[in-house]
Design brief:
disordered N terminus; four-stranded parallel beta sheet; 17% strand; 5 helices; alpha/beta
Length: 121
């Protein structure tokens, strides 16, 4: 009997070393069939081009459902993050150890604010 179950989708992480290693310790680190990882550690030597290429790659991979990205890294490629409008993969901006979360910079939160009128509440 053929199985109709689909293989589950995974998380991708783009962030500083502490964030990525923390998620990897939680079990999210994987390589796809092309031997590409589902994470990118951003440090002082990582270029904006590398970050943007990884982000766009994660957005087009069929095995990724959610992209977690440190908010300060998302700020470096804000134009690419704002251009991503599909629901899968979902892009969630998260804080890092060194940089607190700022809701006014979150692209998803800003889109949601545009859907509601303050008078509705």
């Amino acid at each position: 009997m053929a199985s109709t179950m689909q293989k589950g989708k995974i998380l991708a992480v783009i962030g500083d070393e502490d964030t990525v290693v923390g998620f990897m310790l939680g079990g999210i680190g994987q390589l796809n069939k092309a031997r590409k990882p589902n994470y990118l550690i951003v440090d002082k030597n990582t270029t904006v081009t590398e970050i943007e290429e990884s982000f766009r790659d994660f957005c087009t991979r069929g095995d990724i459902a959610i992209i977690l990205i440190n908010q300060h890294v998302a700020e470096m490629i804000r134009y690419a993050v704002d251009q991503h409008t599909t629901s899968i993969p979902a892009v969630l901006e998260i804080p890092s150890k060194e940089m607190p979360y700022d809701p006014s910079k979150d692209s998803i939160l800003n889109r949601a604010r545009g859907l509601f009128n303050p008078d509705d509440f």
